[in-house]
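Thanks for the sequence, V.! I ran Acetyltransferase right away. Repeating your input here for the record:
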Amino acid sequence: MNVRPLRADEIDRLIDDLWLPFAREMADLDAYNELAEDVRADARSYRQAQLSDESTVTFVAAVDDELAGYVRVTADQSPPVFARGPEATIGEVYVAPSHRGASLATALLDRAESWAEDRGCEFATLSVNERNETAQAVYDAREYSVRRYKMDKRLCSRVD
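Predicted structure:
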């Protein structure tokens, strides 16, 4: 296994083999994450834009020629009203079902955290669905702790 930055020529594979399955799993956990129609084109332009953003990187875990997992991480300054230093936000972590249990998530998180530390980040933050107990166990084992709860409220009763 090799954990390395995503290359431009791999964006379509990332979307088809990893991101769409990830997004569908998240939608299955919570309707809040339901995908828009024809999402692939938007996903592609989003990933392409990230390749030129020095504060964001997507690392992939490659097993032979297969993309088996990925993590996206962004480094940013904390608001100036806080004493803490810069922080990294881990936005997505996903390992293909056929590769789960082989420590790929650990390798991906190691790489993301190392990248963040190299940029002076003091903290790494992430969000996880309350029903995703497998991911929570991975993060607990890595000493992530709950600092706050995110709560949502629908503001209109109309469903499109």
